[in-house]
Amino acid sequence: MEHSHVVRGNEEQQLPTTSGGDVLRRRRGFSVKNYVKKRLPILKWLPAYRPRTDWLPDTISGISVGLTAVPQSIAYADVAGLTPEYGLYSSFVSCFVYIFLGSCRQMTIGPTALMELLVFETCGEAFPQCVILVGFYSGCFQLLMGLLKLGAVVSLISDPVTIGFVGGASLTICSSQIRSFLGLTGAKGDGFLDSIIKAFENIKSAKLGDSLLGLGCVIFLLVCKNLKDYVPKEVPPLVGKLLWFLSLSRNALVVIIATGIAASLSDPPFALTGKVKSGFPPVGPPQFTLPGGNNSTSGGTLTFWETWQELGTAPLTIAVISILQNVAIAKAFGSGQSIDATQEMIALGASHIIASFFSSLPTAGSFTRSAVNEASGVRSPFGGIATAALVLFALSFLTEWFQYIPKASLAAVILCAVLPMIEYESLWPMWKVSKLDVLTAIITFLGSLWLGMEYGLVIGVGVSLALYLVRPVRPRMEWRIVKGRSSSVDRLLSQQAPVLASSQKQYHLIKPEQGFCFPSVDAIRTKINKVALSHPEVEVIVLDCQNMIGLDYTSASALACLVKALKQTGKSLVFVHTTHLPSWKGIMSTVGLKEPECYDNFEELESKQFLD
């Protein structure tokens, strides 16, 4: 390779050139190799992969996750209003993509109850073209956000909003499963209220077979879930491992048992899933113009813009919520790993876009399956290959048996997966910390139930941000009258002025719990004026700046005016703990206060104030 000389200032640098003489430009501080390695995490963990010690744990973990993923995928396809094979299509493609782009080894990507509920609210029943297109556009949004390094966007969704939203989603999902759980006839409800109303209207059509099977499956799942926690210490290790495996594979076991019962009966007394299409999914791009019926202006097919109007905000909502799920799972299980929200955006975006060519539903990280992965001792994302292989095996050879899966058993799987997502136990600690956060969670929860998931999320984020902006308007302030004598000052006073030492000069101490910015100017100014008027005998007012992180023009001007106004009444406004604000004196000088009285600590304040 040739080299070219470039002169910068007094330095001459040699840059490599291609054989054609073009200089290979390299941005200072930017390395293509490091960027590629950062955005392809497989390049980090694969060279350190040890097949002899890592392959077996990864394979066992992948199979364990697969035993959970297959029944859940079939069940979640029903939540999305589609036939079971679409859920299975979604499970294997995402696993493959995340191996290359994922940053958390425990993470498993696939269909989730929340994603499929959101897409069902947009597309309705039996509309696969719409579902696939929503997934594609969600991936485009996620990939764009990742490339623009907008990982911090998820910080706008606070924990109270997430708790309220997930709680509302969980109850909405549960309400949608009442029909299958009890074997009700009639139309499927749209949303929480509609599902509850339709369930009550059709309650007389409930079937004993479906109800008993659903209840039995729930009991079986709950018992197996807690089985590993109640294993006596004296049992042989082999028995303990067996019980542990039964607990992890409980979803697959309950579906297998229920399917075996249905297949053995000539006339099962409960509703079955029906025939499932077998084999590899059709490969091709999503359909960008959807059939629209009466909503179309172009002969039964929506135009591109009409399709966008039909989808509304669903792709963006699903994009944000799936990112939020992934980041939350990565933080929960990714101890000791480098978790990058931007990388998760890129991984999910690429996964959605690629999977849409394989008729996939929208996907996200699954708490349940990631927990199984962690409990199984996964060593690397390589475990996703075993999960994908098991799903492909089921698609190729087991679909003939899927038609015998009772719908009540799938409803039981969904109920047991989503009910633990309701974090009601978080409300009491939240109440003790901040009652406004509880209000945010409740508003988000009710909005998600009554108005729909998208509106609930938007309302929750809006309320959360509004309360965040309102809090500085009425900041909490600590105020008390302090007698200006610390032990060190006492000694100093006794040595220099025994008469003065016997007196106890007082000062007001005001300490805002938050910083001082323009929304809080009026509240803090009012507080200072109020204490000055109510205690005319106290001449010194101290503003503790420990919680300040900076000043804006409005707050700096207000402080300068206060100092001047109080000086005219014979009082002093002084500042303590300003050393962490290096530009403090410069800012105050700019707004007209040339020499503000500032002290590093209270001892310096008391010694100078009371000895001068």
From TrEMBL:
Bilayer topology annotation: Multi-pass membrane protein
Keywords, alphabetical: Membrane, Transmembrane, Transmembrane helix
InterPro entries reported in the protein's UniProt record: SLC26A/SulP_dom, SLC26A/SulP_fam, STAS_dom, STAS_dom_sf
Region (Disordered): 1-22
Keyword Nucleus: no
Taxonomy, superkingdom: Eukaryota
Domain STAS: start-end pairs: 518-612
Protein name as catalogued: Sodium-independent sulfate anion transporter
